[in-house]
C-alpha cells in the first residue's frame, strides 16, 4: 500500500518557485493497477518519483506499507528501492550491457551470487518472452522488446511495487497493447501493485482498476476507473474521455437537430444488455430515434452513451423520460 | 656541422624510445588523475549524484586557470615544483611531471564531456534500482562512457606527442630534443625531416589504435 499524506513538491529555480505537486492525498491499495492521468506538466511524473524518492517531498510524507520513507537513511532507502521496480518511457537500458547484463544489474547491486543471478535472469527472460535475445545489445532490439527488458530488469529483485513512467508512450498501438498485457500479467500472476502515469486514456481503460486525474499538481478526481469514466465530474476528466470517444456528435451535425429536443442516455453495468429502451417506448407508444452513440466495455462492465430523440405525444414522452430516469441517467442535450 | 647518419641512427632510435616512454607514462598518469578529476567534476555539478557547489567551483576554477596557459610557459613555470618532485629538471623523467599536470586537466574535461553525454535517464534508472553513488560511478558512468572516452584519450595521446616534443626542446629528452639540438640549432634539415616523419607515424599509429579499440567497445 502506498499513501501520500498532504504531499507538496516545490522546485526552486533561480527566479521562481514551481509547485509541481500540490497537497496530494492518495492511497494505492495492495494489488491495484492504479493509473494517474494528466496532460503534460500536470505533475504526474514528479508524483511518481516521490514513491521511490527520486524526488523528495517539500512537505508531507509518503508511506509504503505503513513505513514513512522520507525518514529512511540513505542506505535504508536503497534497500527500500529494491522493493520498487521502475520502468521508463525511454526504457533507460544500459547501452554497454547485453539484455542479460541489464536484467542482471539490480541483482549484482544487491550482491546476489553469480549462479543465482543466472537462474533468476533466465526465469525473467522466459517471463517476458525474450529468451532468444539474452546476448543482444539494446540497440538491436525493437521498442517493445526494450520495454520487455525494462520490465524484466524492474522485476529482478522481486519487488512488491512496480511504477511505470509513461511506459507505453514511445510505442506504437500494437506494441502498447502487448506491453499493457504484460503489465497486467505482472499484476495478476506475481501480485505486484502497479502505479502508472500516462496521458493516454486507452492505457487507463485497458488495465487500471483505479484512477486519479491530475491537473496543475493537484489530484482533481479519483475513484474506480468505471465510476470515474462513466460519470466524470471535472471538466478535465471529461476532456480525457472525449479524447478517446466523443460523447456528442460535432456541432455541425448537431445543428441539424436544432428543432428537436435531444436526450443523452447513459447506461452502466449490466443494464446495457436489457432491451429497456425498446420496452419502455413501446409501452407508451413513443418512437425512439437513435442519432449517435457508443456502447463499450470498461473494466468488464458495459458503459453506453446514446443520443436519442423521442417522437410521440408530449405527455407520453414525459412518461418515458420519467421511467427511464429511474433506471439509467438521462440528460437533455443543449443544441447551440 | 651536419650529423653523420651512419652513426646518428642509434641516437634517433634512442630518442624515439624516450618519446614513447614519455607519452605512455604520461598517458597512464594523466588518464588516472584526469578521470578522477573528470568524474568528480561530473558528479558534483548541479543536479549530480554527489552535488557539491564548492568542490565543483574550485575544480572548475583550477582547470580554467591551468588550461589556457600555453604548455611551454607552464613547463617553465613548473620548474621549481618539478625539481622538488623529480629531483631534476633535465631528462625524460623530469619532462613526465609537467606533461602529466597539463594533460590531466585536458583528460578531465574530455572525461566530463563524455559523461555529460550519457542519458541522465540511465543514471536515474540505476538510482531507482538502489545503486549507491560509487556503484553508479563504477558500474554505469565508466562503462557507458568508455567508447567515446577511448576516442577522447586518443586525441589526448596526440597532444601528448606534441607536449613531449615541446618538453624536449627545453631539457626533456626524446625526439623534440634531438630535433631542437641537432636540427634547429645546427641547421640540419635532414634531422628535422626525420624526426617530423617519426612523429607523424606515431600520431597515425595512436589514432589507428584508438579508433580500433573504441569501435570494438561501441560495437560499430
Automatic annotation (TrEMBL), chain B:
The keyword Transport applies. It is a multi-pass membrane protein. GO terms for biological process: D-methionine transmembrane transport. It is found in: Cell membrane. Residues 16-209 form the ABC transmembrane type-1 domain. Keywords: Cell membrane, Membrane, Transmembrane, Transmembrane helix, Transport. Belongs to the binding-protein-dependent transport system permease family. CysTW subfamily. This is ABC transporter permease.
